[in-house]
Write a structure and sequence with these properties.
Length: 363
């Protein structure tokens, strides 16, 4: 009898401790009653098994019987952590917020809010995808680029923050051309359409040709152009580099050629992150045996399309900037290239202006 009483007492304390860790502590933290430092050292204990009743490691079986936002996020965070996903809690919250169409902050305000069966089942399926390393953006179908929201799926490369530097460089040069009636831009390898859509959105008098060899990618780019109401400013063309431009009479009329081409060499493929290697489109990443082959093709005929004094902008891989600048210099059609560094101080963008007089530098 005494044993039974002791057990009940212990069990009740256990429930209280659990409640404290899982519900009250985050709430106290959010209200500023407990210092965040204390929480960050205590809360992870509740996720790392300190309160885990199942010691077998079969975390999938622990899918909560009663689904609240908190119990679901807790389940998912632990599972993602066990599978060594880099930001388990963040991913768990982003996916749930996406399915419930709410903000992540709402979870902290109402952690006990019940979640209905349908979204709970969808959540489980989404988390199981994430542990197979499907990128978060392909699960939520959202990627942010220059503060705009882009639809993405496995047909296109997920826009990267470095590419924002490319767009910013174009916008800067464009502001110098205020006297021009219409600015003509060509984006080669348009993918999700992040570059042309952002440029169309942020400028007034532009006509953009968005070219991609993949019909699938162009379908996604069109979704994004529609979503941001710039469909009428962009001509989408399917084909290899400049080929689909034939017939538009744009020879020597283009102000800017822009491209973030595939620039990873075939032999580097295995070094890529698992998410990238398994799920992002191979053709959007890998340039072939020679990592510079796409740059060479684009540079070779650039002078046919560029207006004298027009600019070419490339995003390049690590250690490629000087080689790409050399390729441009070798044509004798361009002035000395400029580089723009990314957040890791790598020369990431190469910009070169075509001579006003073609072949001026030729010997
Ligand atoms: N232009 C797209 C981007 O920058 C796609 C690039 C690509 O497919 N290589 O994200």
């Amino acid at each position: 009898m005494a044993e039974e009483c002791l057990f009940t007492l212990l069990h009740l304390s256990y429930i209280r401790v659990k409640r404290f860790f899982l519900f009250l502590l985050p709430m106290y933290r959010d209200r500023g009653l407990v210092s965040p430092v204390a929480c960050y050292s205590i809360i992870p204990m509740s996720y790392s098994g300190f309160l885990n009743e199942d010691t077998t490691g079969r975390v999938e079986n622990l899918f909560p019987a009663e689904c609240t936002v908190f119990s679901l996020v807790q389940w998912a965070s632990r599972l993602l952590q066990n599978y060594r996903i880099e930001t388990p809690r963040l991913d768990a919250e982003i996916i749930l917020a996406h399915l419930l169409k709410c903000e992540r902050i709402d979870f902290h305000i109402h952690p006990e809010k019940p979640v209905e069966d349908t979204p709970a089942i969808q959540y489980k399926a989404a988390i199981l995808k994430r542990i197979q390393r499907v990128p978060l953006q392909y699960i939520t179908h959202h990627a942010e680029f220059m503060s705009l929201d882009f639809y993405v799926d496995e047909r296109v490369l997920i826009p990267r923050p470095e590419t924002e530097l490319l767009v910013e460089a174009v916008l800067k040069k464009q502001s110098l051309l205020s006297g021009e009636h219409e600015i003509i831009i060509m984006d080669i390898g348009t993918g999700s359409g992040n570059i042309p859509v952002t440029l169309a959105k942020k400028t007034n008098t532009t006509r953009i040709f968005a070219i991609d060899i993949s019909e699938d990618a162009l379908a996604v780019a069109k979704i994004n152009a529609q979503k941001h109401h710039v469909l009428s400013k962009i001509t989408f063309l399917c084909g290899d580099i400049y080929k689909p431009m034939n017939g538009y009479a744009m020879e020597s009329r283009v102000h800017f050629i822009v491209s973030n081409p595939p620039y990873i060499a075939h032999h580097e493929f295995d070094t890529l992150q698992e998410e990238v290697r398994k799920f992002e489109p191979y053709g959007a990443l890998i340039s072939g045996r020679d990592d510079l082959s796409m740059f060479k093709c684009i540079i070779k005929d650039a002078q046919i399309w560029l207006k004298p004094g027009g600019f070419i902008f490339f995003e390049v891989g690590e250690k490629q900037a000087y080689k790409v600048a050399q390729l441009l210099e070798d044509t004798h059609d361009f002035k000395k290239a400029e580089f723009i560094k990314d957040y890791q101080h790598i020369n990431r963008i190469v910009v070169a202006q075509m001579e006003e007089m073609r072949g001026k530098n030729r010997n």
